[in-house]
Specification:
This is Glyoxalase. The protein is an alpha+beta fold. The chain contains four helices and 16 strands. About 20% of the residues lie in helices and about 35% in strands. Strands 2-3-4-1-13-16-15-14 form an eight-stranded mixed beta sheet, covered by helices on one side. It has an eight-stranded mixed beta sheet with strand order 6-7-8-5-9-12-11-10, with helices on one face.
């Protein structure tokens, strides 16, 4: 048994506007599975769930983003210095703004989407040549080694590297974005605005997977979600995530 990361869930006051921004940013399409939810997915006949694609779900909530930096963000890939500059300029015309998260002088550009969710536009790096527009999903954490142990067991993604400073996983198929846990001082202080959703494989039981995650150190999470088909949990450092119903 194992789970696969299938989407990044972003909370927003206006799911439609934030969803359109991300669709334009990534060159993807938008749809909606219901009121208050905007799904951002690759075009070209894409059928969810794809074995390796990590999509974006934008979900409407009544609370605005707090001033605190999100503990989960996206890094976007580029193919050259010119592409990076062009992408940054285009994103700003779509409503992105420059963001200061204490990055100092770095080769990547830190921006925020129209509701303040931080993300990075990376300089060209050969390692991200085949990831698609999302190079990696980055999670701030205190202990990357502990996160590597938990998420490596929770998912079927392959651990590529682990140090005291970061841990990197990727689909065993060797394509799609990376998942990186990056050591940052300080733990979680506010509910996550952005989180990862995991999906069981066909035939696997959602409750059995949830029980397995609890044994690995996950805890149940009550966000007032009520009677929904997904299960809300948090990892050993308190990062929120959901286990969706089987596809």
């Amino acid at each position: 048994m194992a789970l696969r990361p299938v989407q990044v869930n972003i909370k927003a006051l206006d799911d439609s506007a934030v969803g359109r921004f991300w669709a334009e940013a990534l060159g993807w399409g938008v749809s909606s599975e219901g009121p208050g939810v905007t799904n951002v997915e690759p075009g070209g006949g894409f059928v969810w769930p794809d074995p390796v694609a990590v999509c974006i779900d934008v979900v409407a909530v009544p609370e605005p983003k707090p001033a605190t930096k999100n503990r989960v963000h996206l890094d976007l890939a580029t193919t050259s210095a010119a592409h990076q500059a062009e992408l940054v300029a285009r994103l700003k015309t779509l409503g992105a703004t420059s963001a200061d998260v204490g990055q100092d002088n770095v080769p990547w550009t830190v921006l925020a989407d129209p509701e303040g969710n931080e993300f990075c536009v990376l300089e060209h790096r050969e390692i991200y040549r085949d990831t698609g527009p999302i190079a990696r999903v980055v999670v701030d954490c205190v202990d990357p080694r502990a996160m590597a142990r938990f998420w490596g067991e929770a998912t079927d993604w392959t651990l590529h590297e682990v140090t005291d400073d970061h841990a990197v996983l990727r689909s065993a198929k060797g394509v799609g974005p990376y998942l990186e846990f990056l050591r940052m001082p300080g733990g979680k202080t506010v509910p996550d605005r952005v989180h990862i959703d995991l999906l069981p494989y066909p035939g696997d039981d959602q409750e059995a997977e949830v029980s397995r995650l609890r044994a690995l150190g996950a805890t149940d999470l009550d966000l007032g979600q009520g009677d929904v088909p997904w299960r809300c949990l948090s990892d050993p450092e308190g990062h929120e995530f959901c286990v969706l119903g089987s596809s």
